[in-house]
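To whoever is covering the structure queue this week,

Two jobs came back overnight. Logging them here so there's a record in the thread.

Job A:
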Amino acid sequence: MPTAADTIRTARTRARLSQSALARRAGVAQSTVSRIESDDLDPTWSTMQSLLQATGWAVEPIRTEVADLLSASTTSRAMSASLRRGDQEAAIRDLTEAVGRLIRFGEASDAPVPAWVTDEPRAHELDPSWGTYLATAFAYALERTHRPIAQWMLDSPALPVETAVGDDPSTEFRAWLRAQTPPIFLSKNLLSRPADWTIA
């Protein structure tokens, strides 16, 4: 499935428009078009629709079974933005939502997970420890639903010390948490229960 960046770039070049001409026609900033085409910004549906219509494309959304999935790249950017604001809890919620959706999809469907969901995010978006957390959580969702795990997820480095992200548990609670933690998390020195990845 083509990304928003590929779709907008293709539509714009086929319409023989510059980024600034497309931006004027669609009523958005030229920098928005540039960031979308560079895959630095996931456009809202209304922005995507405006841009495509400005290139002469008819836009008719059709909901598919993968519509609720969030990619590792989108999740990485959301987590990075939350962490820049100093909000670790929001970063954890961002990751929990994406992984929970992936688990729910995998448990409800036999369809393969699209590559755009599991493609490796850009390395600069998260610091290494949060990158390991993201990679391991996505790997856990894929393993739990019997889907192949992307190699970049398996290759993420283990944390130097055992960590319960967002918590500093007592010794007793840490032991209990360790006993609940799936092996894929333990292999990366992360403590996390399966229940931590359940979403409403």
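Job B:
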Amino acid sequence: MADELRKLEVGILVCPGYLPVDVIGAHTLLGSQPEVNVHLVWKNLDEIAGAPNFPTRATTTFEECPDDLDVLLAGAVPAEIFEDAETLEFLADRGGRAKWVAGVCMGSLLMGAAGLLRGYRATTNFHAYDLLPYYGATLVPTNRVVTDRNRITAGPASGSMEIGLRLIRDLRSTEAARRSELNWEYAPEPLFGVGTPELAGPELAAVSIRDFAGEHTVLQGVSERAAERLGVVVPTA
């Protein structure tokens, strides 16, 4: 019982242009547990704009964030954050000690850019499956949760809820996670059932990939530079 009530420290990265949908589920689930400090972390406490149009303020700066976190989590962020030295240094430092390192959607790639996924199995948004190997990770092509030792990754949006439940199970108890799932009535029933390329079919999947093409081109360059910086040899097809 004493261990269940140990104060937990959770760090969630926010930054200009971050996607709140990728972190709000885990934030809500973990933050609703007793004895949990959730830190929204950025360089400063100035107001920033999440995407789309979601005003946010960090609660904790990089410098003030606890050294030893139970969870370090990031969702999708703009491409320039992948090459921001201060952000990568923070993630590498806290992630190297955290009990759990979590990435939702493109947050997986960001953790990779900080050197935290090398040698781990992981997943991300299906639009960027091909980019994970640039960070030394082994791709598991699924929008569900992938756990490898203390690294936990998932696809976008609902992946944040899925990760949150699994972390509650590990850090608190299965019963606490079951109660949380019920309390928040997490029982998704997709309206159209096309939430993966396999379910959507090739025609709709191709449209989605075209929609993401511009961002993928930018991330391709970022990923190639990351591989060079990290000394990762990307396997050829």
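Note for Job B: The chain has eight helices and eleven strands.

Please reply-all if you pick these up so we don't duplicate work.
Q.
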